[in-house]
């Protein structure tokens, strides 16, 4: 499979990158590791005229503790560095685990945190070659009329299967974005639209410049659980939880689900169930069951039917909550 | 035993290991010739449609395009196929297409990008026909016909009846019936189909292509394109895996050849992996209904098996594919009476053919699970039941297979012991949500079945004036290590160092012909030919030396690069002197030849009679699995592979030949699947297909070889490899039953199927309690 010709740009600073992106608009794509973009270019799903390579921009790299105790991660930081960072393993084990579970060693060595967060949604009717696509009219996400999964016009159920965003949202991360209109800061979950056809709330000229994690709170526990077909696969379902325990009760909780819809999603009702009540297996089970209504898998990925993914997302939630509570109690 | 040999039986790194590791080995897709063009094939987007008109004009007008060809450009060819009765394939379909992926046309252009763009400009007008995807539906009277000349879309029907099954069932203490089903899988070779061709003005066509059986493609291409055999030259570069999927010609071969003829330039065609998934061969998906009866003493009295195999759009090697699952049933566990009906059915899908273990894994998946069912029914340990039915040397199976050498019982017991069968069977040890169980399955093996008319194997040894040797054979090293094994046979026979033997790859202009690399025949059959050639060379050396030494050839010995009178090492000649004497003294080239016609019975594709292989092997695999009852995930903790293997030629390669297939069997059970959506292949890459990596498969693999030097094998060798693919399937299924008490009858065994079965079991048990 051949890649169509493109112009390769390699800015040295955020300013240069933002200018290049602003100039070429939707004709340009950001490339860092390229592990998601290049296969899509081979399949002609992505056909950028310009590639803006951000790997030379030093400001987008690195892991640094800030004076206020928060942690700043440059989005071009390779996933291996995230997974192996002593700082992250100590203070944000859920993120370290999520990064360690992305793809294979080779992919993590080149793939970046920003790339994994900004992963395109996937669908087995969409992520196919040109040869395959000759057998079906283009789907809605690919510029056609109907979604082949539900056979309805102008809908898209492509799945968000990034790993690290699920953990980052659970940990209360924020993102800084530079765009044509300047800089803005948003909660990480605000990066996602929940729409399969356009999953990211980023304009063509926008560049993710910083991922910020709040200082780790006392008495908190966190966990990331991924269930996948093989060790190297995208998740069939993944869940990350973060909670604070105080006097045997949960004071605050975040439960985030991935790979069961078009974006990562917070299971707020499940969070509310946990807060303020005496802890026990029944409560964990009630919360785990409550995540189910936030999962909307459809039949569009290999090796995981919708009913199976609805089931395992509750299993993953139960395991993540239990582990978080254990860690919170140990840390309290 | 191995102590007698200098080379045979020694663990030896393969002779091609270095060039393959450094990347120096040249594969078909690496090759470039001056002025070469790139080809791309146009595939059908419809599962079943009549071709009304093909307009190639826009593609031809694209700058950089040199030629476009369709089936109409092939004027002298004919339909090709495995047997005269199954010739149903054309290089490019002209009248109708029968599956999504069917080859219609091809373009040659000055680069790959232009070729790819140009195929998109070919306009084909179709008249859509009603497709049929389900083989059982395809067999109905009112089903659309995929090949008009065949009723009910049945490609082949095999009926076997040995003994009297009704009598056998009547004599059984218990009789059970069950239905099983298996999925499509692919070979999963990393090197896609690739070809480079030239066709000169004298009419000589040359094809460099990735082939595991170059002579199968050679004959098919000769017929399909109307090229006399002497005008077609097929050359086999290094091969990046075959596993049964690289016997036949593919769109790459025809595109390269026909476009080379039309343009007068070398043309190269390489499939992308999506094209391999869409148009390559695959393993038959099957629905199997099996009935088994056993006596109180645990004797398998009768087995009745009915198979409907989803064959896809063309016949491929289907007579063999539907013969083997029945014919191989009565070994390595005896069946007193058996009846088999196999239907191989056309559907509008990519088509099925050979894949390591060729159609036996499916029937063994059903059979070996039934053995466990029956053992439980009569209250006997399933290992014990197997032991009571185990084949022994000198036995003849109910269908006439003659067992020469065999240590199946030893293999069975050692595999079971390796997973602590006695301690663990039925114990269901639990850790949280995880439960463990053990299971066993057995497999037959054969050493070179006769497949068609030509059953010979031959070899030529060409000696250089320094005494080193090139082996010219018709066999192919498809990754299994044949080059190394053959070189070892030559080295052993002539008392030479392995480094002094080089192995040429198949080139039909220079190497002798051979049926191909299938049916585990290479070491046994080609090995024999190589051994015979080496013996011929030895005879030539001894005869020349006898003249010089004034001795009888029979009194001479060849050892340590020296020919000498037995018992009198001083009366001898260095080998180099012998070689030079022949070359310079006589002026003759030194060429030695060897051949064998194994002479097995031709498989009876209609009634399944006959002893088709010169030797049979057998094996057993035992596994310990862990089932997560909450997620349904199954992990294989330990895999024990035991088999009788003749005399191992190279234990290192033998080990690999057991591990690889056993793991790929595991992959079929737990990982791989090709979902189809109205004839469209949904898994077109290794991400969606789910082939496991080293991280996913059993961490602990134990192998047990029971040497059974076979009097008919070269140095006593038998087969290895294919058998190990088979036993993994039922062994894992049986272990899951042992762990959690559910019998999964459908492949693949997905976590969801495990959970569903567990839920049904819980419901049933609850119902019983009410």
Write a brief caption for the model.
The complex is a heterodimer of chains A (about 325) and B (about 775). Chain A is of the alpha+beta class and about 325 residues long.
The first-to-last residue Cα distance of chain A is 55 Å
* Main sheet characteristics of chain A: 5 strands, antiparallel
Q: How much of the polypeptide of chain B forms β-strand, as a percent range? A: 25-35%
Give the overall shape of chain A: globular
Q: Report the C-alpha radius of gyration of chain A, rounded.
A: 20 Å
The strands making up the biggest β-sheet of chain B line up spatially as: 3-5-1-12-9-10-11
Chains forming the largest contact: A-B, 28 and 35 residues
- The oligomerization state is heterodimer
Low-pLDDT segments of chain B: none
Radius of gyration of chain B: 27 Å
- Run of helices and strands of chain A: EHEHEEEHHHHHHEEHEEEEEEEHHH
Low-confidence stretches of chain A: none
For the sheet with most strands of chain B, the description reads:
7 strands, mixed
Average pLDDT reading of chain A = 96
Total beta strand runs of chain A: 14
Taking all residues together, what is the mean pLDDT of chain B? 95
Helix content of chain B: 25-40%
Q: What is the SS-derived class of chain B? A: alpha+beta
Provide a count of the helices of chain A. 12
Percentage of residues in helical conformation of chain A: 25-40%
């Amino acid at each position: 499979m051949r890649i169509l010709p493109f112009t390769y740009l390699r800015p040295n600073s955020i300013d240069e990158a933002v200018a290049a992106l602003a100039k070429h608009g939707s004709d340009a794509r950001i490339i860092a590791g390229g592990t998601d973009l290049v296969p899509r270019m081979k399949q002609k799903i992505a056909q950028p005229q310009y590639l803006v390579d951000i790997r030379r921009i030093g400001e987008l790299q690195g892991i640094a503790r800030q004076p206020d105790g928060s942690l700043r991660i440059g989005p071009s930081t390779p996933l291996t560095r995230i997974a192996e960072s002593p700082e992250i393993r100590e203070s944000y084990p859920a993120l370290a685990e999520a990064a360690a579970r992305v793809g294979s060693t080779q992919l993590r060595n080149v793939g970046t945190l920003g790339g994994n967060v900004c992963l395109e949604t996937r669908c087995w009717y969409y992520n196919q070659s040109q040869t395959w696509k000759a057998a079906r009219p283009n789907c809605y996400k690919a510029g056609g009329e109907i979604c082949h999964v539900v056979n309805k016009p102008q809908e898209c159920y492509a799945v968000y299967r990034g790993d690290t965003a699920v953990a980052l949202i659970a940990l209360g991360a924020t993102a800084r974005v530079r765009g044509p209109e300047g800089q803005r800061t948003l909660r990480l979950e605000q990066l996602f639209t929940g729409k399969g056809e356009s999953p990211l709330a980023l304009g063509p000229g926008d560049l993710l410049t910083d991922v910020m994690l709040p200082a780790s709170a006392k008495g908190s526990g966190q966990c990331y659980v991924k269930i996948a077909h093989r060790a190297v696969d995208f998740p069939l379902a993944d869940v990350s939880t973060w909670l604070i325990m105080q006097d045997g009760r949960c004071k605050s909780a975040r439960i985030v689900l991935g790979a069961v819809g078009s974006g990562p999603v917070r299971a707020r009702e499940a969070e509310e169930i946990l807060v303020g009540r005496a802890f026990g297996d029944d409560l964990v089970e009630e919360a785990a069951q409550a995540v189910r209504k936030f999962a909307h898998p459809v039949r569009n990925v290999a090796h995981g039917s919708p009913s199976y993914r609805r089931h395992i997302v509750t299993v993953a939630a139960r395991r993540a909550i239990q582990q978080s509570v254990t860690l919170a109690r140990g840390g309290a | 035993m191995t102590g007698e040999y200098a080379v045979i039986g020694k663990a030896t790194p393969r002779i091609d290991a270095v060039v393959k590791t450094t990347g120096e080995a040249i594969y078909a897709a690496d090759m470039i010739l001056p002025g070469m063009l790139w080809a791309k094939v146009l595939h059908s987007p419809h599962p079943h449609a009549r071709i009304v008109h093909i307009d190639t004009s826009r593609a031809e007008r694209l700058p950089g395009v040199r030629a476009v060809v369709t089936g109409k450009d092939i004027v002298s060819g004919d339909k090709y196929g495995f047997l005269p009765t199954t010739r149903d394939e054309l290089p490019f379909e002209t009248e109708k297409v029968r599956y999504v992926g069917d080859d219609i046309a091809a373009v040659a252009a000055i680069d790959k990008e232009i070729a790819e763009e140009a195929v998109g400009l070919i306009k084909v007008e179709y008249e859509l026909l009603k497709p049929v995807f389900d083989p059982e539906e395809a067999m109905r009277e009112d089903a659309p016909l995929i090949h008009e000349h065949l009723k009910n879309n049945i490609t082949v029907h095999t009926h076997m009846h040995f003994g009297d099954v009704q009598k056998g069932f009547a004599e059984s203490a218990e009789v059970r019936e069950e239905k099983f089903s298996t999925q499509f899988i692919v070979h999963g070779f990393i090197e896609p189909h690739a070809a480079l061709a030239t066709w000169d003005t004298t009419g000589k066509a040359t094809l460099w292509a990735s082939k595991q059986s170059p002579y199968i493609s050679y004959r098919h291409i000769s017929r399909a394109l109307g090229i006399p055999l002497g005008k077609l030259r097929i050359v086999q570069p290094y091969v990046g895996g075959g596993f049964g999927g690289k016997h036949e010609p593919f769109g790459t071969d025809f595109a390269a050849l026909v476009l080379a003829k039309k343009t007068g330039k070398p043309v190269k065609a390489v499939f992308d992996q999506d094209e391999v998934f869409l148009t390559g061969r695959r393993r038959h998906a099957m629905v199997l209904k099996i009935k088994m009866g056993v006596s109180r003493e645990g004797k398998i009295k009768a087995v009745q098996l009915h198979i409907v195999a989803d064959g896809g759009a063309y016949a491929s090697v289907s007579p063999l594919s539907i013969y083997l699952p029945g014919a191989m049933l009565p070994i390595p566990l005896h069946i007193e009476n058996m009846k088999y009906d196999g239907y191989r059915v056309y559907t509008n899908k990519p088509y099925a053919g050979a894949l390591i273990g060729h159609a036996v894994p499916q029937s063994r998946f059903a059979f070996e699970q039934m053995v466990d069912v029956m053992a439980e029914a009569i209250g006997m340990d399933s290992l014990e039941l197997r032991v009571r039915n185990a084949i022994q040397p000198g036995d003849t199976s109910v269908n006439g297979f003659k067992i020469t050498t065999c240590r199946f019982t030893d293999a069975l017991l050692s595999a079971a012991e390796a997973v602590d069968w006695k301690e663990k069977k039925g114990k269901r040890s639990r850790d949280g949500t995880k439960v463990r169980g053990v299971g066993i399955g057995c497999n037959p093996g054969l050493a070179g079945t006769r497949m068609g008319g030509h059953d010979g194997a031959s070899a030529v040894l060409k000696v250089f004036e320094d005494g080193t040797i090139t082996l010219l054979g018709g066999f192919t090293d498809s990754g299994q290590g044949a080059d190394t094994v053959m070189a070892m046979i030559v080295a052993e026979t002539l008392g030479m160092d392995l480094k002094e033997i080089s192995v040429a790859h198949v080139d039909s202009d220079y190497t002798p012909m051979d049926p191909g690399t299938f049916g585990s025949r290479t070491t046994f059959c080609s090995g024999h030919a190589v051994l015979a050639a080496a013996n011929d060379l030895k005879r030539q050396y001894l005869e020349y030396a006898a003249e010089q030494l004034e001795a009888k050839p029979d009194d001479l010995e060849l050892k340590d690069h020296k020919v000498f009178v037995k018992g009198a090492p001083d009366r001898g000649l260095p080998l180099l002197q012998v070689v030079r004497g022949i070359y310079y003294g006589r002026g003759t080239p030194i060429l030695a030849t060897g051949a064998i016609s194994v002479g097995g019975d031709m498989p009876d594709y209609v009634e399944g009679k006959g002893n088709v292989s010169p030797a049979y092997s057998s094996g057993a695999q035992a596994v310990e699995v862990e089932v997560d009852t909450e997620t349904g995930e199954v992990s294989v903790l330990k895999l024990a592979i035991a088999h009788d293997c003749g005399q191992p030629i190279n234990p290192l390669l033998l080990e690999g030949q057991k591990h690889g297939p056993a793991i790929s069997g595991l992959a079929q059970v737990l990982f791989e699947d090709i979902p189809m959506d109205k004839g469209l292949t949904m898994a077109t890459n290794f991400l969606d297909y789910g082939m496991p990596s080293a991280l996913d498969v059993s961490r602990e693999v134990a192998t047990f070889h029971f040497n059974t030097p076979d009097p008919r094998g070269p140095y006593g060798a038998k087969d290895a490899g294919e058998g190990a693919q088979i036993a993994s399937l039922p062994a894992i299924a049986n272990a899951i039953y042992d762990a959690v008490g559910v019998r999964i009858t459908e492949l693949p065994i997905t976590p969801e199927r495990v959970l569903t079965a567990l839920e049904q079991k819980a419901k049933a048990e609850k119902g019983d309690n009410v």
